[in-house]
Amino acid sequence: MKRHRSVDILFMLPTLLAFGLVVLVPFGLGIYYSLTDWNGVSSNINLVGFKNFESMFREPQFIYSFLITLQYTAINVVFVNLVGFLLALLVTSQLKLRNFYRAGFFVPNLIGGLVLGYIWQFMFNNVLVDMGRTLGISWLATTLTGKPGTVIWAMSFVNTWQYAGYIMMIYVAAIQSIPASLMEAANVDGAGFFRRVRSILIPMVANAFTITIFLTLTTSFKQYDLNFALTGGRPALRFMEKGIKSSQLLAMDIYQTAMGNNKMNEAQAKAVVFFIILVVFSLIQVSINKRREVEA
Predict the structure, then answer these.
(1) Residue 249: how many CB atoms within 10 A of its CB?
(2) What is the pTM of this model?
């Protein structure tokens, strides 16, 4: 039976229409509003060109939020993938109750970001502080989320605790797709465990690294709910001779600009820049990992 392209397009039309209404039209309007003095309410909108973008790059909070988001993302990309990969090696070994451990490691990912943030806020502000005072550990006696130097590390720890189990499942699927005969042959040839992991397992799951690093990078860049519930952007810090919030990531900074400061036009300009930054970093990461897949 001969297929007609018009029939294919007709079947795709509902999906394309929904994609256009939900994604393309709002994105186009967002770019337009970023070039105006739109306040979210008034219908009297005037074009101001790139004024919103110029003021954004002179704003200390935005600059610091961008830098701290880069740091937060870099920490998460390393630790989430490292912990996830190590957990995957553990639950794909001959360990007893390994299926139970898989479920246990994955459970934190089922907890919502807001609930998780409030739980760990109690842990950092009460449980760990009391433990530090009791044991005489000075750096633990004050909350880790209350110091500019440690708050991002505390957020990264919580994110790793939550997200590593999800990343683990991707690595588990990739490891299980490796032919068992290949690992057995290497074992017979005298290759130790670490040699088998380095020379066989890691190259064979290179495509999984592309996926997991991409997911970790984009999720960390877009982090909002955990940031809001755990720290709320606190503590305060002085940067470029102005007081700012030391743990306010980019997504939260955009929200605060729109809802907290009622500057919809500037928030939309930040959102456009945020989108461009995320796309650039994602494309660079995927291209580098794809190149390594070919080399492997």
Answers:
(1) 27
(2) 0.92
